[in-house]
Each structure stands twice: as structure tokens, then as C-alpha cells.
Amino acid sequence: MIRNIFRTIRSATFVSIAIAALLASIAGISSRTLASQEPQTDPMASVKSVIDQAIVVFKDKQIAPADREQKLRALAENRMDFAEMARSAVGYHWKDFTPEQKSEFVPLFTAFIEDAYLSRIETYSVEKVDQQIQSSQIQFNRETTDGPDYATVFSTVVLKDRNNPIQVNYLMRRHDNDWKIYDITLDAISVIANYRNQFNRVLNSGGYDKLVSILREKQQALGASLSH
Predict the structure, then answer these.
(1) DSSP of the chain, one letter per residue?
(2) Percent of the chain clearing pLDDT 90 (strictly above)
(3) Which of 129, 112, 144 is CA-nearest to residue 212?
């Protein structure tokens, strides 16, 4: 069961990042350097920013693997709301976590997501990115808000080898006047919901310590694979 849990998580994360790579070129977003980290006051502008920066890293054939990892990790930390993702991933169990457990869980969850994401990126070549970009089309359709601090950016991706377009929606939360992604849905399937459904099973059967033990084991294994 645990193997299936993390296969689902890695697959969902990889698909999200792959689609993000596709979106950048097709959307015709102008290139910016990773040094451009100014707050984004518009949800759609924030999504376009992270996609644009990701594609710059993807398509840089001169960048060393260690530098690619560092830049992608910095980009993720700057544009993903990992604290909100962690809270949402454990659902109603969050209220039962002690302050110490919350302080421990958020950075552990963050490290695991980053390493799972980077382990997939390492196998995603520049050539493969280019091939998928050339055979795809993207449209940013609209954005909606839910109060002053939450928004959803709606987009559609058409892939050459797929009959129906993929609906890719980015769930955003305002943090210090900056919009960050806390979930991505692919054809109405939430990446975070996949975590929550599986994490809840572990929490219900083994409790907090069991979930943390599994995350540490997987995160260490992923970290070791990235160091080779």
C-alpha cells in the first residue's frame, strides 16, 4: 500500500511540473531571470511567473545538475505555499497535531515534495520538453476569487496525442500581498487530495509517528538518489 501511495504522489507531481513546463513557451510569456522574485499581486501573473521561470531552467543546456536542482528548489519555495499544502494534506488531523508536530511536519513535507519533484525532473530532458511544447497548445481562460485571499486560475492544455484537452487549474492563496500555489487540479483531480486520502489512511492506522517515519524514509531515499 505504501508503495502505491508514493507512486501516486510522484506521478501527480511530475505531471503537474511537466504541464508547467509546457505552459511557459506556448503562452508566449517573456523570459525573466530567476533573480526576479518580486511579489505578484495578480493570481494569473503569479502562475505565469513560476511557469516562465521553470521553463528557463528546463531549457538551459549549459546548467550543471547541481545548479539546476538549486534553482528549481528556490523557485518552488518562492512560489509554492508549502505550509498551506502541508495543512491541507493531513486534513482534519491537523487540529490534533501539537505545535511541535506542526513545526516538524511542514519542513519535512516540504523537503519530501521538493525531492520527489526534483527526482522526476532529473529524468525530464530538454529535448523531451521541446517535443511536448511543439505539439501542445495552452490557453489561460480566467481567474476567480474566493474572498480577498483565495483564487483559482483556470487553464486548458491541448496535447497532440490526446483527444480531449486537459483542464489545469491552479489554486492560489495570498500571502503577504503575494499569490502562491497551494494545489493543482488536473481534469478536476486534486494533487493535494491524493496526498490527503493516502495520508489519512496512515494517520488513522498508525498515527503521526508512522506518517513521519514513512516521509523521512522516502525523503532520505529521494535525497540520496539526487546526490548520485
Answers:
(1) -HHHHHHHHHHHHHHHHHHHHHHHHHTTPPP--TT-----SSHHHHHHHHHHHHHHHHT-TT--HHHHHHHHHHHHHHHB-HHHHHHHHHGGGGGGS-HHHHHHHHHHHHHHHHHHHHHHHTT--HHHHHHHHHTEEEEEEEEEESSSSEEEEEEEEEETT-SSPEEEEEEEEEETTEEEEEEEEETTEEHHHHHHHHHHHHHHHHHHHHHHHHHHHHHHHHHHHHH-
(2) 30
(3) 112
Domain assignments of the chain as residue spans, ordered by start: 2-227
Computed over its alpha carbons, how large is the radius of gyration of the chain?
A: 17
> pLDDT tens digits for 20-68?
544 333 333 333 333 344 555 789 988 888 777 777 777 777 878 778 7
Architecture in CATH for domain 2-227: Roll (3.10)
Average of pLDDT values for 151-165? Answer: 80
Average pLDDT, the chain: 75
Question: Which residues lie closer than 8 Å to 196 by C-beta, 6 or more apart?
Answer: 88, 89, 90, 91
pLDDT tens, 99-139? 999 999 999 998 888 777 666 655 555 555 555 555 556 67
Q: Are 73 and 114 in contact (CB under 8 A)?
A: yes
